[in-house]
Specification:
homohexamer, alpha/beta, Arginase, Chain A, two-stranded antiparallel ribbon, 8 helices, 10 strands, globular, Agmatinase-rel (chains A, B, C, D, E, F)
Chain lengths: ~290, ~290, ~290, ~290, ~290, ~290
């Protein structure tokens, strides 16, 4: 036993101890200050790591083992409570530094607004990128009751940043009338209700493109992800989301980063939400990190 | 801010403040005294209202907005604890008064026995009505261990009141041998296990008819509705129930009222049961109120 | 039954339906954006109201009945998610308007930062007021990691506004070294660990003075109030807090308003925290409203 | 292993397998149909038995071992759901038969109304009996909103049956104004808020008398018994209740039977309420059964 | 009422009181000492029995009633805490004695390692038997970090005992790379991810064979069985598992015994896991006991 | 931000990053394989660390700050599931190595049996040591139903190792008759029910002695520590335990190490047990580490 050499702290299973040697970096964004319903996703990243110790290191979905990927778990960015602007600035700065060092970023939320500064950092490096967005909510508002910094707005901002035609949303089953109208008129892609089937149809169109992927855990039905702030009945199964992740792994897309957000553990005493999320992270590590552009 | 004008209390989202101007009335029936397993559905109506504030007001399922319907939320009828007969009398009296005033009744339970006095009130106004019943349980008993007033009996009473051939049950996966035999012999319609597909086949047959619809939340699998008294494995998803509600909205049926019963919040700390229920109520408001007979 | 006349929504038990005729006004401040540990107190006011229906209307502690006090329950102020400054502005504006109309304000939080704008509104009307502060935490920081608007700062701001010698803290068992040093040097009163006994000693000194009282539910041991964001072991019992409330009722103090904050229901599935809080509100209504200055 | 001889089912630890040879009989009354707030005490008896397997068989409080007492666990009386009158009749009939056979009855509730038929059965055998009542609630109403059969009435009925001067209530901290006035005028004994100290003062006065004891678990503070329907802040500790039970064991009172009611497990996921209740039952068995009149 | 004749304790609904007259015996194995993640399945058997009282006695899946089968519920084997070897010896001894007396064994776990001694007992009587294994996990390890007695190993031991070609696994979605390679090379049958469809294809091949069936509740998605130690996202629905059980009932297989393991109630406050498990046990009793070889 | 330098994983708040420079070492023993009631304390150490981030770094109890002590958090010893003997060997080996390096050991359990190998390691270095034991249970059994390695035995073993007259137990309220008789006859010190007062009387007697302290969290009443395996009603408050810890800090005792065991988070969704435990650890760090012998 060598307990005196390094912390055996709460990191994602099989994380590599050395930042420099790692291809990918897992980082947490413990922020939930702008949510309109149930807060608590600030504890999502820590709990996803915690239950990862119950995971197998091998995936029968794509026949790969975590030893085939080198990733560092950087812990959570210490975001300032209740200050959305400074939090977003810190996230952007951190992701930019990861990109400068050639790391593949895997972000864990936190509320969905955290994806906005990531988009901003990514687009500076990859101006021609596209976004795949898997979520129950359209997140296409311009503001939320006057607040432009809201967890309901990041995909609208992505449309502004990247051009709506480069944004692909799947599984959407909730939003305002204006959001659905925007989706229709703007030229973006939106598949309502389902994920795996429409995604498989779209992936060939994205072959060879640089794509960032953001997944909101609430795309799952609350039966499969009760631990989330804005649970929305009528969602997909965890089996379907695994199928979607695998389809992306097996596609010709060049993946440049990803995040998984809105795990709020306080509402799920069975821990099934974080258990599912940690499995999704394993599949992203195994299937997506190797697909990054050289 | 005008906090001095009216209560901003716990009402279903976007309720109209004026009873007279409303087409529909939401009312709660907080009664659970005759249940044979886990009580607690008395708190169902209050919690469905409470979480409705997390709902969007627009439905992408039928492209309609809650502003298109005027409904009043009357709160809960103050039923006497432990007295089934007086409780049922009060419900019948209340629904009768709603019908006299031309209101579309949307009842929230409470145990399923609350539908019995509603049936009685409805049939006085609409003697040729039919009932669509969506439930895990047949509810076709004549009595429960000697008690004729039991949550296991309301559909049998509906058969007595309306003629069994006017009762259509869907999703049934639990009951006594006698109940299933009655279903076969009586001339009623019973679809076991599934809801959306068999319902879509039956709806054309009901075109133009006046139909009351009663939904027991336990038709959902306990995965989707853990918060109910008599959870029964092997049920449908919330996605399938949304599909069924939408199919009714899009049918030629004349809807004369509806209820949603058996939400028991104490068994669901994720609140997903009431969150799903409040979405179903939204869809009923949007899709069914307009389909009432003139 | 007169369900067509008024909402029977979620208001504190026995609330008076008319604002103008009421002496006191209960109002909620559903804000938790700056908390440093577990969020969720935004749902505190609604749940305190909800469980108030389980309360008796009579108090054996001071032999008084809720019919002896007229109070209006105004519901929750619709605070903007994630925007502390605008939220505080709205609270100050609302309390100021209550004071202008001669109402006794009873605020329900929400995080403790909501007391800051209340202090500001109160001191404009009552420049010579004092504050009684009952809490586990000193709340005497100047800022929290650079953020001046934090739930750790309101009592420090009260010292700035009123003069430290007019601030009386009880039950304090947590804070930084700087906060405890400030308490010693500033001239304020701070009783550590206990509430009822030291308070009884101080009350004669406050006789005849105008006093605002703010209670943080976490002064209770987590055994008695598990539903709070920053639970702190080693606290007092609910029996002791009732004794303290009663002692104030029986004192010669002129009470000008009060609040009860930091009830976060998601962490307490037994609902005992809000059940206790609703009892405290009943005792405040019965014992404190009548003690306001003419 | 002799698994083929008898059920090893859910009985209170160390129960004697033979009814005839037993001095005392534990029986459950799974009824909660008249409760005005949170139902669920029907599952109390089963859960108290279940966790009894975590108990030691020896008590350091009175230095006695469960092998010194012979008691049979009869399971739950199969009460008819939602029918208070028939339920009470069945309880009275059962307790009467126990008394005829010379058994010491130990009843487990269920709601407190179950004590009423027990009182009726007891007084037929012991016309000069007294009652010790330990509870948060006075339970002295004549009816509850018109219903004479309510969980708020049993102690008033006891006063009618036995003479108010033979009823001794302890720990009372909730009730209507009328109930507290009745307590004052009727000649009954009522100690507010506390149990152990006032009880110790009263016990000498009851020396040599035949006494039935009814304990409502909600006399404990919700911190110690969150699993109950009508939790009431400001209660006693489980340590104080153990002290009270021991004081009765050590007194000169002749105990003729007892019950423990209102354990509602659904509201306590830690199971601490039933764990405490099972310890109280052990202490009653050890300290009270031997004190019955010959 | 005849409460004096026999315990009415916690047994599976409609259990026969007489061991000798029964065809089948339900027995619990409350062991969880070797689990690598969340313990607690020791309480599974007791809670499955407890909630069985909420079940109907009739199955609409195969149109049969529990009165058509005679089964005795023997309670739990009192296994020694923390001693795997002695526990397994006791289980083997008990099952052997059941087989000698011609009883059909229905075992309730506990962790999956309990199936190992059952396999050993069964194969002594039925050397040409096959095993159907329904599970999320391959359970094909030779040891777990050096411990040969681990909940990850029983199916590997079954392959050793019976020949891998007589082992049929369904629903597997987790394991080490070595386990999946063993599955491929060993000649065993393994269907990944799904259960009902592949099982229906395999059943004709097993016609006339003696088959033991072991079901790990975690084959269900955590949405349907949150109460289990090693929850694994991406599983099947309870509807699919009911379909699989019914397919076996309707097949030409000769069933010689079965078990259902890994229900861990502490992680599921809705009780849906044990509610589903008790329904599966009912279906096994109704569909499988009659299919045993003469 | 320097996220690339070191894990920011789950360590106790303010842990020092360097083992060599630290005076004290926190280490976890995630073992619960021999518990006789509810397992789950294997997750205790991780959750105590997790909630430590909600703690203040300063203690008003002894006016000291965590910066005054240097301690390293070594994480959890990777104990082999279900193998008590190997687990105990690993613990002894680890603690021995800590003592060789002059570190003050602070162990987090896990079940109480983990203290046995610690005692063995300690007594080799400090043959004249004494033990202070704070617990609800006597833990004085020679074996548990034949198993000598059981969570009910460690204090008996301590008596064997150190001489009973060097063992001081406080707060004991549960055990077998034999255990209490042993306590009387053996010459050990046992204070029943209470902790702070009897401890203060004993501490002068221990002045100058080398003392190891073991605290079982279940000495607290279940109200204060619901998250434990063998909850026992009638316990002390967290306030009293803080008083006891402070009294030891202020005494003339030479403390040589300590542990805190039996935190089982699954039974406490409010997290109050681990929140209290982390505060106790802070107080031990602040008050006890400095009191070690040179």
């Amino acid at each position: 036993m060598k307990f005196d050499e390094a912390y055996s702290g709460n990191v994602f299973i099989k994380s590599h101890p050395n930042f420099e040697e790692s291809e990918a970096v897992i980082y947490g964004m413990p922020m939930d200050w702008t949510v309109s319903f149930r807060p608590g996703s600030r504890f999502g990243p820590a709990r996803i790591r915690e239950v990862s110790l119950g995971l197998e290191e091998y995936s029968p979905y794509i026949d790969r083992h975590l030893e085939e990927v080198k990733y560092f778990d950087a812990g959570d960015i210490p975001l300032p409570f209740g200050n959305p602007q400074r939090s977003l600035d810190m996230i952007k700065e951190y992701v930019t530094s990861l990109l400068e060092k050639g790391k593949f970023p895997i972000g864990l939320g936190g509320e969905h607004l955290v994806s906005l500064p990531i988009f901003k950092a990514m687009v500076e490096k990859y101006p021609d990128m596209a976004v795949i967005h898997i979520d129950a909510h359209a997140d296409l508002r311009e503001d939320y009751e006057g607040e432009p910094l809201s967890h309901s707005t990041p995909i609208r901002k992505a449309c502004d940043l990247l051009g709506a035609e480069n944004v692909y949303s799947f599984g959407i089953r909730s939003g305002t009338q204006e959001e659905f109208e925007f989706a229709k008129k703007s030229g973006m892609h939106m598949s309502k209700f389902d994920v795996a089937e429409p995604l498989k149809k779209v992936l060939p169109e994205l072959a060879g493109r640089k794509v960032y992927i953001t997944i909101d855990i609430d795309v799952l039905d609350p039966a499969h992800a009760p631990g989330t702030g804005t649970a929305e009945a009528g969602g997909i199964t965890s089996k379907e989301l695994l199928e979607a992740i695998t389809a992306i792994s097996n596609s010709e897309v060049q993946i440049i980063g990803c995040d998984l957000v809105e795990v709020a553990p306080a509402y799920d005493h069975s821990e099934q939400t974080q258990i599912a999320a940690s499995k999704f992270v394993r599949e992203m590590l195994l299937g997506w990190v190797k697909k990054q552009p050289k």
